[in-house]
Amino acid sequence: MGIKKVIIVMAVMLLLSATAMAQSIVPAEWKFLTGDKPEYIDSAKNEYWWKDISPLTVWEKQGFQGYDGFAWYRVKVVVPASMKKNAKKYNGLMLNLGKIDDADETFFNGHKVGATGKMPPDYAGAYDVSRTYLIPPDYVNWGGKNTIAIRVYDAGGDGGLYGGPAELTNRGNPDLLTLGTLFEQEDMVLKGLPDTEIITSVKNEFTKSYRGSLTLKIVTDFGEQFYDGYSEVAVKRMSTGYFPFQLKNLKPGFYKATLALHSKMGNKTYNFNFGYEPEKIESPADSQPDFAEFWQRAKAELAGVDPQYKLIRIDSLCTEKQNVFLVEMRSLGNALIRGWYRVPVKPGRYPAIMQVPGYSSAEVPSYVNYGDEIIGLALNIRGHGNSIDDVNPGFPGYILTNLGDKEKYIYRGAYMDCVRGIDFLCSRPEVDASRIAVEGASQGGALTFATAALANDRIAVCAPQVPFLSDFRDYFRVANWPGNEFIELVENKKALTWDQAYYTLSYFDIKNLAPMIKAPLIMGSGLMDEVCPPHFNFAAYNLVTSEKKYIVYPYAGHGLPDHFYQAKMNWIRTKLGLN
C-alpha cells in the first residue's frame, strides 16, 4: 500500500472514530396535536390527525395562533447500533430539546425520561429552562425506530418547543465531570464584608484521577470585567474536590460567573450568578416635577368614565363551591376591558386578590382559583387576552405604542385599567374592601407595583414577581429585549430621541412609583433572569418604604419555582388575616 493510500485510510479511520464519538441525531418530521390523551404517547395511533411542526419555534408561529393548554409533540428516530457501545460506557444518550414553553413531560419509547415545570392543577411554568434528559441504554431500540413524545402545557402567550436544536447525542468525557459551587447562603446572595471566598467543586466520575486547570471569570451585571482567577486542580477517581477563589471589594449588585475546567480528559463550563448586598443597590428615582400631578389627572380622568360593570355567569366553569363570571368594564378612554371573576358560592364578605398579566399573556379563570376563602379577579389589561376590542396594538410593538406622548402612552391606560379593576372589586358587596391584594409576574410584576402605588389606600398586600418596566436607562444597557425594539424606533427609524423616550418612560418607571406604595410587599427574583435581571427588580424594591421582603432563587430565570407561589400565598393570606 502506498504512502498516500495509508494516509487516506488513516484519515478515514480517524474521521469514522471522531464521528462515532461525536455522533448526533437531529430528528426530522416532527408531528403535533393539540389536546391531551394518554394514547398520544404511542406513535402507532392517531397519526392521520397530527400536523407537521418544527421544534425550533413556538406553535403560535406555525398555524396555532392563540392556542393555550395541552399539546403533544412526537417524532420517530432511528438510533444506529454504532451508538450503543458509547451509550453503555457512559450510561445513556442525551436528549437535548432546547427550551419549552411552559411545562413538559418527555417520553422515550413510552418511558418517562424527564419533566420540567409542573402540570395543572399544580401548574408551574419553566419556559426559560433548557431541557436535557438522559436516555438509559435499555430504553433504546438499537438499529430500529424509536419514538420521542413530549406532553406540553402552555398557560398563555407563546407555547411549545423553541430555541433548539432538538437532538439525540452521545455522552462523552465531559459528562463525567460536574462543576458546582458551595455557598453558605442558600440564595447565593452574599452579605457582610466586601472581601469573600467562593468555593467551587469538581466532581470526577472517571475511574482514574483527574488533573487539569480551573478558571473563574466574573463580570458585573452590566458586563464589566470584575475577576479572572486560575487554579490547578487534582481530583481522585470517583470523588469531589473543592477549590476556593478569593474575591475582593465587591460592590452591591449582581455578578455573572463562568467556571471552566480544562484538561486532556475533557473540558467543562458552568455558569452561575450571585449577588452582594442587593438592598444597597442605588438607583435614585428620576421622576419629573409634575409626576404626582400627572397621575392625579389620570385617576381623575378615569373617575369620569362610567365603568358599566357587567357580570356574565359561565355555567360550564362553575362548581358547587365557586361561581365563575366573565366581567366587563369601561376604563380610561372608555376602553372596554375584561377579566374573570371567581367567587365562593357561600354568602359572605371575602378578601380578594387581583392578578394582572405578563407581557402579551392572557389571564384565564384557572389563574385565580385561590380556594373557597378568597375571591379572585384575573384582569386582562387593554391589548391583552379578551381585552382587545378597543385597544389592540399587538406584539411586538405594544411597549412602543405612543411612546412620544406621555398622555397617550399605552401604559397610562394599562395602569389605569388596573385601578379600574380595584374599583370593580370595591363595588362588589361580597368583597371586603379592606382586604384586597394584587399580584403578577414580569409585566404583571410592574402592574402590581403600579396598582399598589396608584390605588395605595385600597391595597392591603402586594406580591410582584420578577417585575418589568424598571430603571429604564440602566435596563437598556443590558436587556436584549425590549432594548432592540427601542433601538429600532429611536436609532433606525429616528421616530424620537433617546431623551424623549426616557422622558416618557420616567412617568411609568416602577421605581418612581415605588415610594407611593403603602402595602406590605413580597417580591420574587431569579438570579439567572435575562429578561428582567434582578438588579432592576431591586432598583424598584429598594425605594419601597412599606414593610417588605424578598426571595431570590439562584437557579431560576424569568420563571420562578413553585416555592415562590407557596411563599407568596402564605404572605398574602397572613396579611389578609386568613392564617
Descriptive report:
This protein is α+β, with helices and mostly antiparallel strands and 579 residues long. The protein has three domains: 146 residues, Jelly Rolls (Sandwich); 107 residues, Immunoglobulin-like (Sandwich); 269 residues, Rossmann fold (3-Layer(aba) Sandwich). Helix content is 21%, strand content 33%. It has eleven helices and 28 strands. The longest helix has 19 residues.
Topology:
Layout: H1 3-21, E1 24-25, E2 31-34, E3 51-52, E4 69-78, H2 84-89, E5 93-101, E6 103-108, E7 111-116, E8 130-135, E9 145-154, E10 160-162, E11 167-170, E12 177-182, E13 189-190, E14 196-204, E15 210-220, E16 225-235, E17 239-247, E18 253-262, E19 268-276, H3 291-303, E20 310-313, E21 322-330, E22 336-344, E23 350-356, E24 375-380, H4 410-427, E25 431-441, H5 443-454, E26 461-465, H6 472-478, H7 483-492, H8 498-506, H9 510-513, E27 521-526, H10 534-541, E28 548-553, H11 562-575
Parallel strand pairs: 13-19, 23-24, 23-25, 25-26, 26-27, 27-28
Antiparallel strand pairs: 1-11, 2-3, 2-4, 4-9, 5-8, 5-10, 5-11, 6-7, 6-9, 12-14, 14-17, 15-16, 15-18, 18-19, 20-21, 21-22, 22-24
Helix pairs in contact: 4-5
